[in-house]
Amino acid sequence: MKNYSAIFLLAMLSSCASIRKHNEQRASCIPPEQLKEDIDYAYLKLQQMHPQLYWYIPKQELDHKFDSLKQTINEPLTPLQFYFKLQPVIAGIREGHLSLRIPRKKFTKKEIKKLEHKTGLFSRFEYYINDDHLYIIQNRDSIENIQPGTEILSINHIPAAEYIQKYRRLISSDGYNTTFQSYFLKDLFFNFYTAEHGLSDRATIETLYKDEKKTITLRRELKSDTDLEKDKEMKKRTPEKKMNDYVAASNSYNRSFKFLDKDSTIAYIKVKSFSREYSDEFYKKTFLKIKNAKSPYLIIDVRNNYGGSLYEINNLYSYLASEPFTLIKPSQVTSRDIPLRTNYFRKSTPLEYAFKSIAYPSYFFAQAFSTYKKDGKVFYKMKADKPTKPNKEAFRGKVFVLINGGSFSASSIITAKLKNDKRAILVGEETGGANDGTVAGFYSYQKLPNSEIKFPIGLLLVQPNINFSDSKKGVVPDVIINESMQDIIDKKDPQLEWIKSEIAVEKENKDL
């Protein structure tokens, strides 16, 4: 027991020292020469590892961007200041998965526990961004009686428009898509803001609602015992929560299912994230219910779904297919040793590290033989690029899929495949992810040597098994219907309502 106590104490001290060292490094200024070394390092790693680096930008133009950036570095910068200079160049590559990790302050367990006992400052609202305007569209706790539709004009006396313009340059979609940024930026806006300004206990915002301006002070408050008990309850994992992939942070489910009418003719599946966790059980039970109900219509909603597991979307497609299908084309990598550059021991606890060390030889050989060469290119072996049989409970009726600018990555892969195969009618907005695929799959987690900024690089070129559009844009819906901020506030859903109306007309015609 004494040995275990000593190990625990040593781990605690090591963790505290690591956090202190990280925060000191984050606050330090790095000489220009070293920052330029980091720029060269980042570009070199991209050239070595990224399988489609010049998909949306010519090499000459990207060379110029990196060279121009180096010319602007003429004084020492903190890692955070450097991030705001380098990330716009990375975003200019137009690969939505490709992004530096913002260098944040780290917190000790004691500091984290203290924050958990307080309410959020900005996280208690839902937001909407249109052009350079930031709006509150939901006020969950009725703070200061702020009404949905209220515009935030400034935060601590700095115009919100300045932040939007600054942060927008940090985000890119795949290719020349125009719908993704506003969705992703509203979710990341205050991540960027708190990285810059820290987690303060109060903030002053100037608002505008119905031509009336107000100055409001937001404050973190101590949570009541009831709220803390509720938080604890939300974290418990019941069988239902597991199957529907419950997310305590948002008090919502990643997957949900219901019938939209009394006679169960319209089945509705909402997937917020293809997390894979317990997805087999969810789809098995859901499609059995649909089959037993003999529902002729199915709506799959992947709006605001940023993607996730290829395994899950391949499994989902098997419930929609009538014959064997291949979801994706063979996935290209830059070299045969690429699968071994995935940071196997990343984020391992000492115990996990010990177990991983034992398993490493098996992992090494599996990865070493996971590639093959064809026509002078190297490909990674994937289950999703092999023929898959339809599931025995596969749905045979009519399928509608709801998409918008927040449908990204795996959401775009499956919707591009569904559209190409004419298996579904897509309704909504152009997806945020590209129609012709993306670069992701798994990552090599690089760290810039001097600024120590983390730089994950996607290693797989993942493309749906379709006839490519070469549009360099997202998946375009068959029926384009946009959703306004007022629709969201009024809880109206014009995209879903269009589908329900279309089904109603079709059912009427069948009855004639």
Map the helices and strands.
Blueprint: H1 2-27, H2 32-49, H3 59-72, H4 79-91, H5 109-116, E1 125-130, E2 133-139, E3 150-155, E4 158-159, H6 160-168, H7 180-197, E5 202-209, E6 212-219, H8 225-234, H9 239-243, E7 246-247, E8 252-253, E9 255-259, E10 266-271, H10 279-293, E11 297-301, H11 310-318, E12 331-333, H12 350-368, E13 371-374, E14 377-380, E15 398-403, H13 410-420, E16 425-428, E17 438-447, E18 454-462, E19 479-480, H14 485-489, H15 494-511
Parallel strand pairs: 10-11, 11-15, 15-16, 16-19
Antiparallel strand pairs: 1-2, 2-3, 3-4, 3-5, 5-6, 7-8, 9-10, 12-14, 13-14, 17-18
Helix pairs in contact: 6-7, 11-13
Protein name: Peptidase S41
Pfam family, one: Peptidase_S41
Domain Tail specific protease: 227-482
Keywords:
512 residues, alpha+beta, Pdz3 Domain, 2-enoyl-CoA Hydratase, Chain A, domain 1, 3 domains, six-stranded antiparallel sheet, six-stranded mixed sheet, 15 helices, 19 strands, 39% helix, 19% strand, globular
